[in-house]
Design brief:
Shape: globular
Radius of gyration: 13 Å
Structural class: alpha+beta
Strand order of the largest sheet: 1-2
Mean pLDDT: 93
Number of helices: 2
Distance between the termini: 39 Å
């Protein structure tokens, strides 16, 4: 990669929320639900399920 994604996102005004490598990290912003890495898969699934159940 010619650049670090985190650096470019911050330069573009994004709010980056990171944790240590391989630690679960799920961020929810409106309809956007995202995880940092494979360790976040369970948390992302739970967040999606909860979001769909609330509609």
């Amino acid at each position: 990669m010619p650049f670090a994604l985190e650096t470019e996102l911050i330069k573009s005004g994004a709010k980056f929320v990171g944790k240590d490598n391989w630690e679960s990290n799920v961020v929810i912003d409106g309809n956007l639900i995202t995880g940092q890495n494979p360790a976040s898969a369970h948390g992302v699934g739970v967040a999606i399920s909860e979001r769909l159940s609330s509609k």
